[in-house]
Every structure is written in C-alpha cells, then in structure tokens.
Amino acid sequence: MRLTSSLRFHRQNNKSFLRIFMLLVLSCIPGRTNLCSNHSDIRSSLDSLDLDGYITFDDVHNASKDFGNRYQLPPLAILHPRSVSDISTVIRHILHLGSTSNLTIAARGHGHSLQGQALAHQGVVINMESLPSHGIKIYKGTQPYVDVSGGELWINILRETLKHGLSPKSWTDYLHLTVGGTLTNAGISGQAFKNGPQINNVYQLDIVTGKGEVMTCSEKLNPELFNSVLGGLGQFGIITRAQISLGPAPHMVKWIRVLYSDFSRFSRDQEHLISKKKGFDYVEGFVAINRTDLLSNWRSSFSPNDSTKASQFKSDGKTLYCLEVVKYFNKEEANSMNQV
Ligand SMILES: Cc1cc2nc3c(=O)[nH]c(=O)nc-3n(C[C@H](O)[C@H](O)[C@H](O)COP(=O)(O)OP(=O)(O)OC[C@H]3O[C@@H](n4cnc5c(N)ncnc54)[C@H](O)[C@@H]3O)c2cc1C
C-alpha cells in the first residue's frame, strides 16, 4: 500500500513538473519567434542597403577568428566596402536600428590580433582590405609623406616608398599588417626609441566616426579625434586613410645580434645603447629559450668568421636574451661599415 501511495505521489509530482515544464517551454516560444524575426529583420535590413560593395552573411568562417586562434566568434555579417561611404552607410544604419539590435561593429585589418580584437560576435565585421586603395601616393619635399588607405599592408608601402629612396620612419617587425591595424595599437619596433612608435609618425587621418560621419583630423584639425583614434584600440572610429611621415631609406645596414645569458648585463647594455645620441638606428631586445638548435637556426645572424665562436656559446638550456642592433649607412659611408 505504501508503495502504491508513494508511486501515486511520484506520478502526481511528475505531472505537475511536466505541466510547469510545458508552460515554461510554451512561454519561451513567442520570445524565440521574436528573436528569430528580429534577427532576420536585421539581416534583410542590412541586405537592402544601397552599397558600392556588398555584405555577406554565410561565408563568415575566417572573420570568426584571428591570428591568436583562441576565440571562435562568428559575426552576423561581413561588409566588404568598395567606398568610404559604404562604411558610413552601414554605421548609420546600425545606429538607426538602436541599441536593442545588439549589433556591434569591428574593423578587421589583416586579422593578426591575438585576443579577438577584430571580431564582432553576431555583429558586423568590416573587411578593411576590401576598401580600394586608390594607389599609394608619395609626396616628396622637406617633409615627405605617403598617403594610403587604412586597409593597406605595410609591406606594400615599403616596396612603393623604396622606389623613391624613402621609407616610413618607424616599423613593426612583421610587415603583413595593415595601417589601420597597427595605428589603433601603437606599432612598435627597434626604431621606436628614436622616432617614436608608428602612431607618432602620422600627419593626418580620415575617420568614419561612431555616428557614421566622415572626418579628417590631424594635430591641428579635430585633434581630440586624432589623438583618440591613434592607439585607441579601434574604439574611436575607423581609419580609412592615413598620411604617414617618411624619411630617407638607408642604402645599406649593418645588422648585429648579441646573445646574453645574464639579464642585468643585457638590460644595462640596451639602456646604454638607447641613451646614446649618435648610436645605432635600431635597437631591440628579446628573450629566447635556448633549445639545442637555437644557434644553428641563427646561423644567418653571425658572419662566417664568427661561426666557431658562436658554436662555443653554451648556456645549458637556460633562457637567453638577445640584443638586435642595426646601423644605417649611405653609399658614401660603405668603407666605415666595419668600424661599427
Ligand atoms: C607575427 C606578428 C608579429 C607582430 N609584430 C609586431 C611588432 O613588431 N610590433 C607591434 O607593434 N605589433 C606587432 N604585432 C601585433 C600587431 O601589430 C597587431 O596585432 C595589429 O593590430 C595587427 O594588425 P592587423 O592589420 O592584423 O589588425 P587586426 O588584427 O585586423 O585589427 C586589430 C585592431 O585594430 C582595429 N582595426 C583594424 N583596422 C582598423 C581601421 N582601419 N580603423 C580602425 N580600427 C581598425 C580592429 O578592430 C582591432 O581592434 C605582431 C603580430 C603578429 C601576428
């Protein structure tokens, strides 16, 4: 008897649980339908925009991740702009949809961030490399500069400026990064101690603001916008064009790498080198774990005469510190190269 009554109790309990569960499911359905229709409304509203370029909704795999490969955050859509006005139109449209659309926007340069900075989960990614460059324009004179699209790769700028004996003054180590991508960070390399990071070497920018306005800015014109966008982590506007300061490109360089096993000596030497007025043109330091093949991989860093010396360098698997220094030379200075 007891068993039967306990069973009845359980059955009744189960029935009430099922009733509550069904109620919950049914109450969720209208919400889900709203969400879906919202989603498809947004999609079709984006699709109906009159653009020079186009928007894709399906092929979003590449824009879901970056170089770091730590996050998979698919966007709702990717804008492939063919004009600055495309970027402005989409931003204005998203602003018009209001905050309930929950759409975020991220510009994507070459996608070489490590922490998902160029991703917009269920938002709109703007593929800056689609923006036509209209050429890399070089202006010579007392203060030479190059005028480029925000989606241009630094490697292309170097190739073009070198044809005129010029080059940007400050670099990143790796050059397959976009102008917009590094100018929203800083752009740091071995010339930064002398010329500042890349963001210190910009004359003018064209920006599409968060309201979709297209604005030109510089130290003198809209300086607040200029100083916010440079190093602003992509949060203050989208860089569509930049004027970057140039200097004479060296004809030759002497490139030296020095290995240390003692951190204090390494950092003392590095500080000494960057404090010298007439020293090297490039100074960078990095840390390396000394795997057994480290020195043979670095054979190119040592002159053939130094290879015996280098092979004698033993650090027993310890952490190594490397100073990388470069001195620039003109053709006339070729004879003095080996005096460095
Ligand atoms: C192999 C490698 C080497 C590197 N070496 C260096 C180095 O030596 N020095 C250094 O400083 N950094 C270095 N970096 C870091 C690199 O500078 C940053 O990750 C940079 O942001 C990548 O540029 P990107 O074009 O791929 O930008 P993305 O990764 O596409 O975007 C980076 C950020 O910029 C924003 N953004 C992109 N384009 C625009 C635009 N036009 N307007 C506004 N915002 C925009 C994005 O929304 C995002 O927030 C290196 C990275 C890698 C992978």
UniProtKB/TrEMBL annotation:
Record InterPro entries: Cytok_DH_C_sf (IPR016170), Cytokinin_DH_FAD/cytokin-bd (IPR015345), FAD-bd_PCMH (IPR016166), FAD-bd_PCMH-like_sf (IPR036318), FAD-bd_PCMH_sub1 (IPR016167), FAD-bd_PCMH_sub2 (IPR016169), FAD-linked_Oxase-like_C (IPR016164), FAD-linked_Oxidoreductases_BP (IPR050432)
Catalytic reactions on record: N(6)-dimethylallyladenine + A + H2O = 3-methyl-2-butenal + adenine + AH2
GO MF: cytokinin dehydrogenase activity
Keywords: FAD, Flavoprotein, Glycoprotein, Oxidoreductase, Signal
Cofactor: FAD
UniProt keyword annotation of Glycoprotein present: yes
EC number: 1.5.99.12
Family named by the database record: Belongs to the oxygen-dependent FAD-linked oxidoreductase family.
Protein's recorded name: cytokinin dehydrogenase
Source species of the chain: Eruca vesicaria subsp. sativa (Garden rocket)
